[in-house]
Amino acid sequence: MPAFRPRRSVLYMPGSNSRALQKARELPADCLIFDLEDAVAPEAKDTAASLVAATIRAGGYGQRELIVRTNGVGTAWFASDVAAIASCEADAILLPKIEAADQLSEARRQLNKAGASADLPFWIMAETPRGVLDLDTILAGCPEVQVVVMGTSDLAKELRIPHTPDRSGLVNTLSQCQLTARAHGLDIIDGVHLALDDTEGFRLACQQGRALGFDGKSLIHPRQIAAANELFGVSAAEAAAAREIVRAWETARNEGHGITVLNGRLIEQLHVDEAERTLAIHAATK
Question: Are 144 and 114 in contact (CB under 8 A)?
């Protein structure tokens, strides 16, 4: 397992589609979310949970991070989801529509009762107005949360915001959640782009998400993987520039200096920290 886990491309996979789950072993996505919630019809939910558990146990996914999105805590399907997936060796559980810390406590209680590892991480969806407003409190009360995932489709519906190419109605909410996640030292994943044939719009959404500070993009189709990996990844030129910063800093430190200038730009420790992070991403995604 790499020291740094890239999360540039986070692909939702319908938990009831055996063929898609098998094919995912060959896809270049960083993370796979086996979805038991929105992508599965009510009559197929129990079967889907068992299928996902068996598929993960079978392995073959390499370094891809495997996450199971359950149905919501308190729904009729949550207990059966937990019973099926508790010991399937997923990397994390994604909990939808989280609005309060006690939902996470209840999820942990049920997972522990079902025999799940006590340190199984949570990912959580930020997809309701209450969940967004209380995100800081939620994260403060649950150190097991590892990643926040934006549920922009549900948010747009709840906020009565139209889907526009520039996502202007969601920018403030996206930035608020990104700030909150970073305050807790967590990764945060941007929401989905629903227009599958809108290649240029998808690229613009990825560029916007990266500019807003997101770590990656949640995806609904394999055709979106390559662009997400490119636009949330590190180019060869960016890696070369980061190496140059690190080398210049090492030279300055060896000479007893606390700062240096590279190509007319002041370099301090904070720039070196970011350069080293850039190189870690590059190394993990080569």
Answer: no
Do the domain assignments include residue 276? yes
Q: Rounded CA gap, 152 and 230, in Å? A: 22
Q: How many CB atoms lie within 10 A of CB 204?
A: 16
212, 231, 250 - which closes a domain: 231
| 3-class DSSP state of 231 | helix
**Confidence bin at 1 (pLDDT 50/70/90):** very low
CA atoms within 13 A on the CB side of 15: 32
pLDDT computed for residue 3 by the predictor: 64
Query: Residue 79, class by beta-carbon neighbours within 10 Å (0-12 exposed, 13-18 middle, 19+ buried)?
Result: middle
What pLDDT does residue 258 have?
84
Write out pLDDT tens, residues 208-233. Answer: 999 999 999 999 999 999 999 999 99
Cβ atoms of 194 and 153 within 8 Å: the answer is yes
Q: Which amino acid is at 260?
A: T
Same domain, 193 and 245: no
**Domain range for residue 121?**
9-231
Residues 156 and 77 in one domain: yes
State the pTM of this model: 0.94
